[in-house]
Amino acid sequence: MPKNSSGVYSQPAGTAAVSGATIGSSAFNTLISDISTVLTGDVPRAGGVPMLGDLPMGGNNITGLDSAAARTDAPNAGQVTDGGLDWYGDGSGTNAKVITTNGFAPSAYVQGFRVRFRNVTANTGAATANVAAIGVADIEGPGGAALVGGEMLAGQFVTLEYDTNFNSFILLNPANLFTSLLQDTSPQLGGFLDTNSFQVQGSRGTNIASATTPTVPTDGNHFNITGTTTITGFSDVKDGLVCTFRFAGSLTLTHGSTLALPGEADIVTATNDIMIAVQDTSTLWRVVSYQKALPGAFSLAGLIPIREETITNQATMDIALPTGFDSFEIELTGVIPIVDNRFLWARFRRTGQGSVDSGGSDYATIFGFIQSNGTQLNGGSNESIAQMALTPTSPKLDLLADLTGLFKVFQPNNAALETKLHGEIIYDSNASVYVAGSTKSIHKFDSTVDQLTFLMETGNITGSYRLWGRAPF
After folding, report:
1. Greater confidence, 281 or 323?
2. Domain annotation for the chain: domains and CATH numbers
3. What confidence score (pLDDT) does residue 144 get?
4. For the sheet containing 388-389, what is the strand order?
């Protein structure tokens, strides 16, 4: 009978020799046939016949195993750890890599088929590979991105793995993986970004031509805005995007539902003004900082620049005071009358009215023009016409005076309190009389104030102003 399941041979019954008895031919032939059957089924030491079933090793090793020579051979441990199964030698070609077989390649590309080779020539663009003459397949970067050049350097050991999702080889070790994000058009962080004490640098984008709603390019985060067209908003790019804008000249930024400006007031830009804005929603950009170039201007720390303007030979210099501020500061420069020898006056306007009322519940109390030496040139008085004289009785402002002043407006948006105006003024009359001093006035209203007007006693006015506002805490 053959060996049992444990591999133990047992002699067939009735075939054992008995001492002193003649061995019969039948018993002998049965024994020899059985032994022959067992020997035929054993694995010959010299090989030559295949196994007919699995060979359990019972926890033992196969020792002295030679290296595999074909895809269907069993490899030894050294061949596996030394990388001999997926090593294909040199890969020739610049962008069309040709890799010869190592004897272990499949007949067709399959999921996970891995190839390692030494790259002879660096790729200069999109690349392909033909391994073991199986066929040409694209080589792509992580995520299936096309190569652009420089991902496989000359002399680099390259590892490719076939992905049936893309029907392409994926380059697992691109040379520029840690130096460039060109291949990944939408990189994402998996956690906080530690800059390791280095800067995160931005870049200057292409110029933006002013328009009602100009398009913000995506090639940078610092832009020059050219032209003079009024801007009421910017294009939708990405919520949370922060951009810096520099203005090449004068145009108007209009406060509204698509462009939120500091103090809810329009801004007239000037050359080299800088603005920082953030896209809050797809239809709203918020200006979080606006820095005027303002060469030679007063230092007004903590104030928000609102507007600057020059008027020439006009009846009044009207300065709108937007809501949202506790106080304002106004710089006047180059102010002269068109008619010689005139007072400079100021008057407020109440919300919803075209001009200041005369008499009634509103009035102006003038504390007078006080010279720098302390002498008061004008006495305090209540003015029924609700306007305040800002220059002394003598000398009045003349054609060559060129007045400069810094005025402060307090409590413009509190109907229960008087609006106060304080000014510091300096000018030199055409009679060579130097005048410097301050003026203090109170104007009573029963509603809030939204405009301060400078005007001459009679005749027109010429000059420039800059307006700043101080927001509440």
Report:
1. 281
2. 1-48 (no CATH), 81-171 (no CATH), 208-291 (no CATH), 304-470 (2.60.120)
3. 82
4. 317-320, 449-456, 344-350, 388-389
